[in-house]
Write a structure and sequence with these properties.
The chain is α/β, with parallel strands linked by helices and 314 residues long. It contains eleven helices and 15 strands. It has helices at residues 42-66, 108-111, 116-125, 146-149, 169-179, 220-232, 242-246, 267-272, 275-282, 293-296, 302-305; strands at 11-17, 70-76, 92-95, 99-102, 130-133, 150-153, 158-162, 182-186, 203-205, 209-212, 236-239, 253-257, 260-266, 286-290, 307-308. It has a three-stranded mixed β-sheet with strand order 2-1-15. It has a three-stranded mixed β-sheet with strand order 3-4-5, with no helix packed on it. The radius of gyration is 18 Å and the shape is globular. 48% of the residues are buried. The model has no long low-confidence stretch (mean pLDDT 93).
Length: 314
Amino acid sequence: MNPVSIQAPAAVVMIRPHRFLPNPETAADNAFQRNATADSDGDDGARTLSAAARDEVSTAAQTLTEAGVRVHVFDDHGERETPDSVFPNNWFSTHPGGHVALYPMYSPSRRRERRGDVIEMLKAEYRVQDVIDYSGLEYDDVFLEGTGAMVLDHVARIAYAARSRRADPVALERFCTHFNFEPICFDTADASGRPIYHTNVMMSVATEFALVGLELIANPARRDEIRRRIAETGRTVIALTPAQIANFAGNALELSGRDGRVLALSQRAFDCLTHDQRAQIEQSARLLPLDVPTIEMAGGSVRCMLAGIHLSRR
């Protein structure tokens, strides 16, 4: 396996939360989110939940580091009331050539997650040419939640986006124009007919394969087109069932480690993959399961926890 890939970053940013709680503001359209009332009842329950989430991030960061991935961990002590800060990939992304993008966030509490120290670290450690800030679109109720709303094929320059209130077509078009991506939008529906809130819970594009919840794409013709477009890039299309999507099997991120590429995903996601699916993935990348059950209560999993760094080191 070739350890170098434009699709698979060799470094990530992670946020370690100290006041973690599934965000009530995001529960309405996030069907993956679990009500944590019983788990966090009272101060002791909230502290227990926060401590579990904090430990899960620390352990995941250590596992990634041992695999040869460069991990930049920032602590969030909760002074700004940012319950979803553990998911930094939504508010910023990085791109080859030294480009950084900041995104407009749907939930007001999530807008407080943007932090200058992360961007300053990127400028100090990596070659950053410019920072393009789309966050002002929030004043017009236009939102695009980063690489949650978009799944980017950095090789074929395609931005896949499931339509939702968190992926506005105006913002998507603006991003694609600036960063030279072709937008491919599609409608989705779960078993209850609700749209998928973030594209990256149903789709992951790696170097030689793609995990896709094809059954969740509402239009059969669009479904076939997306399968074809992925196959045209030379990737193996690994179809995930709705049940596997519900267990976060689509919320994975390929990374470049010391000894080759790895696919970071949750233990829950790993457990629901079939033997054949695991074998297909491991032809290209070693599976690297991370145990994050507390964090998954917030409606996101491992991919949401990792903001990939596609920048050259200084």
